[in-house]
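Key idea: predict the complex, not the pieces.
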Amino acid sequence: MSGHRLAAGGSGIDRTTPVRFSFAGKSLTGYAGDTLASALLANGVEIVARSFKYHRPRGVVSAGPEEPNALVSLGVGARSEPNTRATMVPLHDGLVAGGQNAWPSLRHDLMAVNGLAGGLIGAGFYYKTFIGGPRGTWTRFFEPMIRRAAGMGEAPTEPDPDRYESAHHFCDVLVIGGGPAGLMAAKAAAEAGARVLIADERDGFGGALRHERAAIDGRPAPHFAAALAAELATRGVQILPRTTVYGQYDGAFGAVERVVDGSNDPGPLPRQRHWTIRPREVILAAGAIERPIVFASNDRPGVMLADAMRAYVNQYGVAPGRRVAIFTTHDGAYRTVRDLAAAGVTVAAIIDARPDVPHAAKAVAEAAGAELLAGATVAAVGGGKRVETIVTTDGRRIAADALGVSAGFMPTLHLTAQLGGKPEWDAALSAFRPGALPTHWHVAGAVDGTFGTGEALASGARAGAAALTALGLAVPDTTLPETDDDLLADRPAPLFHVPGKGKAFVDMQHDVTAKDIALARDEGFEAVEHLKRYTTLGMATDQGKTSNLNGLALMAAHLSRPIPDVGTTRYRPPYTPVAIGALAGETTGAHLRPVRRTPMHDWHIANGAEMVAAGAYLRPRAYLRPGESVTTAYVREATAVREAVGLVDVSTLGKIEVAGPDAAAFLDRIYVNAWGKLPVGKARYGVMLREDGFVFDDGTTWRLAEHRYLMTTTTQNAAKVLAHLDYLLATAWPELRVHVTSVSEAYATMAVAGPLARATLAAVVDGIDLAADAFPMMAIRTGRIGAADVRIARLSFSGENAYEVFCGAHHGLGVWETILAAGAPHGIQPYGTEALGALRIEKGHVAGGELDGRTTLHDLGLEKLAAAKPFVGSVLMNRPALCAPERLRLVGLRADGNAPIRTGAHLVGPSGRSEGHVTASTYSPVLGAQIALALLANGPARHGERLVAADPVRGGETPVIVTPYRHVDPEGSRLHG
Amino acid sequence: MLIPCPHCGPREVSEFTYIGDATKVRPAPDASADAWSDFVHARRNPRGRHAEHWQHTAGCRAIVRVTRDTVTHAVYGASLAGPWGEGEAR
Ligand SMILES: [Zn+2]
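Result:
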């Protein structure tokens, strides 16, 4: 319990506002302005998590987004979120958080036995032990077991109750990072009148200034930063705190704004907002990440990054321990020494790897009363569950309860490299910095290797000026704020690893050790991308922010090659994890896509229709009367069509007007059949193929006038057919004088079908002679029903005498009700898609199940339609394999017994192999039998054969007899009504 | 990715539907099955600059010929497909 709240200090917290929260079941108190991590440290909570593989106790390492250890489960129930970085969670009243990867508790984790067997779970363990074992052992046994033991936190099982938004933004300058450089860059750009957006992933602006003790323009640095951010807002700069610019994609940046952080109820606000930002110029001022050093037991709670300690002391008023030691290789870490001492924390020792420590640093050590061990390194830390002693390489033991480590800073260059930019090695920094920048990019501040406050401010102003110049705007004069710069993080001695006994962690989140890197090298996984995959280095949720460079350096040392020769792995977006909910935004559930409704939709609902999705439409499956099931309802409906009259809403059909002097020539090229001789006032059934010769779609096309046709398509393919026509007219036959327009929603469409269809219409239609010879099959007539102009075609899908009635969409309901009233004396019944399906299966008409993109004219028995002329697909449809008799071809099936035939069932003969499948099935009221359509190898030659329709997935085997696909009225005599 | 539609100006890629390689030349109607098969199935899939057909589905519905870098997704320009396009950028 050595982490504690200091009696005073903490520029970012409000000691007058206590905040109650709970962690791992314990009630604790922090202050407004705390993060969960600072509050846990203040309460002396040392073990905040257990590690992924070895279940070792882990404490807080950093104070920022790079945190590899302090991953906690936040919230309860549907709002719970695993793998949350405690360093990034602002504390709020009632916050509930828990540890992960531990059972039964963080302090006593029984799974820690993995640590004892640790020698067995080295790099490549999974690959060697499990993959390639007996088939199925991995997925059935080992993988679930290891998952449970390894633990990755638990995702909630309930649906997310919160809302997510998406926003698009265009700006002249996007500034990523709101530290001193970013703020100055935004200021310069805004003063010149540029449209600026500045985003910072923390809950306030200032970056490193938020935990800086030095003054700027005579004001405390955090105040200066807050005031500058407020000034930017008044200048119209779009200010986005809690917003991570996580990736760069095709000229746009993806960012996530955590509108309501933590796990509390966001109320009317969205939890997160996803931004797609399209800037003209980009200024990256993302700062830098401190680099740890690899040595034995470097994962003990109490070992932290040195500058993080400074943040806890200065910003949160929290001391990481009572006797702190520092292990470093550069002057920058002496700021921590200075600030710890100023806060009254004992600095036990400074272990500095440099034999010659510069005078300024020495002076800080002296002033702090800290013993300086120059030229020394830390070999290990002692203590079971936390730091108790520091052991140096030359054997000194120093009593301390916390150790701050720093080997310099690594520029946060991730965004510059996501699109393939190559980072450059900077020997002075012992780190990579951004390489050649993409056009319109500028970098400023620590990401550019500029670490002092004054230098960062100047660098930001320069980047702002460069962006303005690129935009063609005048650069205003900028006065830089006054700073009193102190020590600089200059030229850290390049130290990555201190050899020693015991586990030395490179990647804490994935438990990758120095030994694993050596093993990867020994087994030949030297290439950096292989190293990564073999050891899983950098593949955890932190993506190796603190560990990748150390891993590369270790490999480079093993290979005796310079680090830049080993290279870096590819930087991939996202920079930090992004919730799927944020990417989905509003497009979830009912908002995924709009529901399309026909003009008669409400009538269907009001009259008992059970609806079913058909493309984006909802259509009635059947109209259920009280006590009826869908089956009894559709049998009743289909029977009404065969025996009397029925009415079905077919407004969902695609309708495309094809107009122009060359329309007939165009239809000739897209349909397999010929159109030239179709007279005005007549319709024709047509089939179109794809370019590869497979059947694409079918429907009737009506010649309305000399140069005007109305094409109908299936519901499913309406949009695809229109795009197909657009494309062919634009690219293949631009010379054709034809225009195509979708009129799908302009018309309501309904079919009146059955032996009494004519009698029904005769009662309500004005201006059309419905007599059989005056209105023959496939003819089109115009007239009126009530107030509505109608166009009627005598067409049949059901096999009965039938009429398709078109009227303006707004007349749809009126015409529908008028026809129903006229048919009432004849027993008219509205029918849904189930009855429609039953009727067409009885007739052997093809639809979606058969037009599955894999069937040809020949497969469907439609080869006689093809005219001797070129049309889309005409060459490729004749490829020999597409005409082979053994192809799956259309047949009918009749069940031998009463059991239904399952759609999708496979047809199995004596061979025991699948010889085809069922495409559509129904009970046929008129035949009193279960029937189906199917695609069967060499089907037409097998009529009369007995097979089994087997459905091993859903269960059931139905004996069937192969029949012709026209089950009912093969001569078509009923059409003449 | 923004595609400069010749009718509508620069528009977000989500308004467009990808059609395919614009460099393939449609064979004559009576060309061989091999020629047609090449047109339908064979794609060069180049790395770098490429010409593609896209349709401005959620806009003016024009079929546009877009020249684009398949690696960086940089869009160099777009013209109407067919003879209406100006300055065919290849
Ligand atoms: Zn357009």
